[in-house]
Amino acid sequence: MLETAANSTRPIALELQDLHKSFGSLAVLKGVSLTAYDGDVISILGSSGSGKSTLLRCINLLEKPTQGHISIGNEALMLKPTKSGEMQAVDNKQLDSLRARVGFVFQNFNLWPHKTILQNIIEGPTQVLKIKKEQAIIDAEKLLDKVGLLDKKDAYPANLSGGQRQRVAIARALAMQPRVLLFDEPTSALDPELVNEVLTVMRDLAEEGRTMLIVTHEMRFAREVSNKVVFLHQGVIEEIGTPEQVFDNPTSERVKEFMASHNQN
Where is the ABC transporter domain (predicted)? Predict the structure, then answer.
């Protein structure tokens, strides 16, 4: 696993150790260990079915791992095994605290259709972080301005394009002031002409020094914004390194085949 000397000067934002996940007899993750330091932008690549989305969903227990350790910052999530073989949180308050520090941007936005855009964004800060509504509105309007949608604050999700809804979803995740942002194929549900507006927002976040883990098929974007690239294959990390190493000089034959099929030069 690639870790540079510069990493030692940055705090650890997220650490996964020997993470496993099975669905019945199907092993999807087979021992994934990964460290993200503050400011890391890590793109997670691989073929469909390689475990990429499952990996992200295990981080905040949207999927319960069957083995392994998860830490946010210097706090380890306390887990215990269940009769089903899955791990669950020992303390639900700790789990809620962890989830508040890990923003998740889904493929399909997951906005509340009956709430306005502004209401979607202030719900978490007011209910979970206990921020006063007046302050939450001020913060939400700044975030909507940041993603270019302040004029849509009183609209409903159904009145927005897919790209606009995804930008709202990013603003909603940012409103929780997360330590880490997780993106699960954030452009896969979008029409091609709407992809760039979402990637532009994500590039801006990377330039700000946000810590992000991004599952994506956008190869050029991954190469441009990442300081680390992870290639998953059949539930294990097949290759990890800088974009130059993974895209240009992979050691794995599987990664070489993948890159060739995506016409990377």
Answer: 14-259
